[in-house]
Amino acid sequence: MDDPKRMRQIPKMDQLMAQETGRQLVRAYGYQETLQAARIAADQIRQDPGKDPGDIFKEIRAILKKQKRRHLTHVINGTGVILHTNLGRAPFGEETAEHVARLMTGYTNLELDLETGKRGSRLASFQQDLESLTGAEAVAVVNNNAAAVLLMLTVLAFERQVCVSRGELVEIGGKFRIPEVMEQSGGILVEVGTTNRTYLEDYTGAVTENTAAFLKVHTSNYQITGFTCTPSVKELAEEAHKRQLYLLVDLGSGDLGYIPGTDPKETVRSVLAQGADLVSFSGDKLLGGPQAGILAGKRELIHRIKKHPLMRALRIDKFTAAVLDETVRLYKESEKQKIPVLEMTSRSLEQMEQMADALLKSLEHEVGDHVQLQMIDTLGTTGGGSMPGKDLPGKGLSIRSSRYSVMEIEERLRHSEPPVIGKIEKDQVVLDMRTIFPGEMKELTQIIKKVLDI
């Protein structure tokens, strides 16, 4: 039963909003948002006898902060995972962001040929340069790589068979699987070989009059090692073309050959040179651009794809076109280090050691006995399924506290403004310098001080 005296301690909404704390919250979060949070807080206090009516502003502030965290916000990535899917994969450089912001706040010539005054293609601004970068006769771009694979199979293998190794029947994020994408395209999946060993004759032995293509798929997020066998792209291309079949390659990561430690035989240019008819890859992985699915290969096949009705349903918007145009320009003009993904993958141990040392020095003279900070060796990764099994040695800051558990430190960092996302290893919170922007260091220092009460 409600306590009438307790209920009277809950201020009316107009009184709450008129108080100085209420006005401060309105200035920070907006009137309607604060009023809605106040009503929710009042209801929670009425329903929970354990809540003190005197803490209503504390409850309102907590609700507003939680609501704010539901919106997209800038976060500091201390995980060491460069293409972190949960954090938006490839970040853009400041110059790219500023350039694109100018385009997005006005009109653009997205589909206008300024020479003729007639309608043009939304790919025209970057198409030729992207063809040059990949070595392709032609390219097409849709909204992500899954869409690129779907479109490729729909156009070239509808109601026809496609041979895929059992070791390459991958599942990508969100439980989307190659067999399901194949089914949606209207293609007929033919599994060949085994999980760990697939031979060339497994493909050729499965060919029938209804076979359209061989499909080779990048093994995203995992590796098969040990007793293995898989035919090369060149071998598959030769056998496919002998039988008037296509060789289609879902390369996934989109390596153009500028990332340290990648296999030169698995770049887009190399795969096409080995005989693949079409290659699909992501724009927001090793390319370092926006979310997009890029199809590169034979001009006649790209022409057929561009004419298909699905192309319009899956086409990119002006934002994607603008970012991709600027990203490709940076490659063309040898300004690749302005692409954060390329800068982070090539960041030296010395650079990361300097960053960690600067962070330590900015904190150590204020650290109390309850805090232990230390520079440590780290192992980062490119992430995004792009280079499975390949670690990136780096440097990081280890954080421990006798006042807070590692779980509490991680949570307090995650709930800071802006949120800092780290990782927990060996009973310590670690912030990996590989994925932290130099421009974030000053802000990060203040956040750590606040989180650890130093």
Descriptive tags:
alpha/beta, 7-stranded mixed β-sheet, 3 domains, globular, PyrdxlP-dep_Trfase_major, selenium, 19 helices, Aspartate Aminotransferase, domain 1, protein biosynthesis, 454 residues, SelA_trans, Aspartate Aminotransferase, domain 2, single chain, L-seryl-tRNA(Sec) selenium transferase activity, 17% strand, 4-stranded antiparallel β-sheet, 15 strands
Textual characterization of the structure:
The protein has helices at residues 4-8, 13-18, 20-29, 31-47, 56-69, 94-104, 127-134, 145-157, 178-185, 200-204, 233-242, 268-273, 299-307, 309-313, 318-332, 340-345, 349-364, 406-414, 441-452, and strands at residues 76-77, 138-142, 161-165, 171-172, 176-177, 188-192, 211-217, 246-252, 278-282, 293-297, 371-381, 391-401, 420-421, 423-424, 429-432. The protein is α/β, with parallel strands linked by helices and 454 residues long. Strands 2-10-9-8-7-3-6 form a seven-stranded mixed sheet, sandwiched between helices. The protein is globular, with a radius of gyration of 27 Å. The two termini are 45 Å apart. The model has no long low-confidence stretch (mean pLDDT 92). InterPro entries: PyrdxlP-dep_Trfase, PyrdxlP-dep_Trfase_major, SelA-like, SelA_trans. It is an enzyme of class 2 (transferase). Converts seryl-tRNA(Sec) to selenocysteinyl-tRNA(Sec) required for selenoprotein biosynthesis.
